[in-house]
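Technical annex, item 7. During the second reporting period the consortium partners agreed on a shared format for inverse folding records so that results from different sites could be compared directly. Each record opens with the tokenized structure and is followed by the designed sequence. A conforming record, contributed by the partner at site C, is shown below for reference.
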């Protein structure tokens, strides 16, 4: 493992590579939020059983020592990918801070209790939308969707909207995390963490 490095880089310090990478991510996200950066959007990549990749912008909705949580319809394309190939990669890029974080790992379902708690905190129109949308399925016209929305609104009028049984969370459990810090001349700093049976190891990569 490289020794501790506290090199100044455009007003910030390159973090200590001995730290747990999820804790290091949380510290980076807190710093980004203080700078006014939205830390929810992520590029989330999956692949189907044949290895065909697919990437989309999703929203990161939870981070804890177990991993990184996002939510979706269980019939969506990403969910079908994860059923046949439960591996994924996510990336966050914060251009104003010249930082990028890449996270690879296996994916598991979040618990029903976690999904219920998150769904209960969503805006009501988003709750209604989760029921109305067959996410990623063919849609004949916008009118079809608008009609479904009205039907769901009537169905749950005057009462809380429960979480649909076909909607919930996934947790990406990382086994590889890379922290990228922009430097002049494209001589960037790249700090890689890799999970091993005995814990995390770390080292630097050539830019």
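Designed sequence (site C submission):
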């Amino acid at each position: 493992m490289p020794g501790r490095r506290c090199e100044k880089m455009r007003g910030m310090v390159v973090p200590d590579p001995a730290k747990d990478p999820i804790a290091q991510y949380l510290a980076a996200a807190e710093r980004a939020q203080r700078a006014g950066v939205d830390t929810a959007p992520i590029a989330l990549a999956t692949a189907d059983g044949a290895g065909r990749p697919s990437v989309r912008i999703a929203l990161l909705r939870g981070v804890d020592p177990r991993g990184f949580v996002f939510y979706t319809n269980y019939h969506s394309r990403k969910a079908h990918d994860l059923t046949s190939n439960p591996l994924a990669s996510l990336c966050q890029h914060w251009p104003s801070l010249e930082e990028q974080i890449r996270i690879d790992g296996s994916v598991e379902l979040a618990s029903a209790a976690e999904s219920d708690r998150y769904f209960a905190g969503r805006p009501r129109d988003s709750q209604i939308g989760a029921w109305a949308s067959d996410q990623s399925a063919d849609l004949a016209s916008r009118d079809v969707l608008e009609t479904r929305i009205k039907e769901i609104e009537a169905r749950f009028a005057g009462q809380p909207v429960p979480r649909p049984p076909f909607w919930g969370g996934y947790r990406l459990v990382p086994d590889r995390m890379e922290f990228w810090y922009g430097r002049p001349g494209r001589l960037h700093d790249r700090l890689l963490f890799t999970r091993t049976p005995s814990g995390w190891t770390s080292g630097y990569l050539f830019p």
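The first strand starts at residue 8 and ends at 9. The first helix runs from residue 21 to 34. All partners now use this format for quarterly exchanges.
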